[in-house]
């Protein structure tokens, strides 16, 4: 059974930083392209970033230069380092593999 468990969300002021983690199990993590997405209140699901199995990264324009995706295959864990956070980054953040995604972790950016 595929399991994706996100953690690390919380409240932060604009300009602050958070690091999200996603613990993966039930599939061969080291062979998987992994994705972070988010969903803000009243909006649809938005792709944020993907890291391929060989470490190639890609980012949405809205987060490029501020967010960094990474992975630690030995721990079956995906990360998202988020810096210079803005109020518009407020959303539930999900990690995803193929059609599976976790329960999400809430990120709230406000003063």
Q: Describe it for me?
A:
The chain is globular and about 40 Å long. A hairpin with a 4-residue loop joins strand 7 (67-72) and strand 8 (77-82). The strands form two sheets. Strands 2, 4, 5, 6, 9, 10 and 11 form a seven-stranded mixed beta sheet that branches. A four-stranded antiparallel beta sheet has the order 1-3-8-7, with no helix packed on it. Helices cover 0% and strands 52% of the residues. It is mainly beta. The protein has no helices and eleven strands. The model has no long low-confidence stretch (mean pLDDT 97).
Q: Ends: how far apart?
A: 40 Å
* Overall residue-averaged pLDDT value: 97
Largest sheet: 7 strands, mixed
**Residue windows where pLDDT falls under 50 for at least 5 positions:** none
Shape, please? globular
Count of individual beta strands: 11
Taken as a percent bin, the fraction of beta residues is: over 45%
Overall structural class, as computed from helix and strand content, comes to: mainly beta
Rounded Rg:
13 Å
The run of helices and strands is EEEEEEEEEEE
Entry summary:
The protein is an all-beta fold and 111 residues long. The chain is 0% helix and 52% strand. Strands 2, 4, 5, 6, 9, 10 and 11 form a seven-stranded mixed β-sheet that branches. Strands 1-3-8-7 form a four-stranded antiparallel β-sheet, with no helix packed on it.
């Amino acid at each position: 059974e595929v399991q994706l468990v996100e953690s690390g969300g919380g409240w932060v002021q604009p300009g602050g930083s958070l690091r999200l983690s996603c613990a993966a199990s039930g599939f061969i993590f080291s062979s998987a392209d992994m994705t972070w997405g988010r969903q803000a209140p009243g909006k649809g699901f938005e792709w944020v970033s993907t890291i391929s199995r060989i470490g190639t990264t890609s980012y949405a324009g809205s987060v490029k230069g501020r967010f960094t995706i990474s992975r630690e295959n030995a721990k079956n864990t995906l990360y998202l380092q988020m810096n210079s956070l803005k109020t518009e980054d407020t959303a539930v953040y999900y990690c995803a593999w193929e059609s599976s995604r976790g329960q999400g972790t809430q990120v709230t950016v406000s003063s």
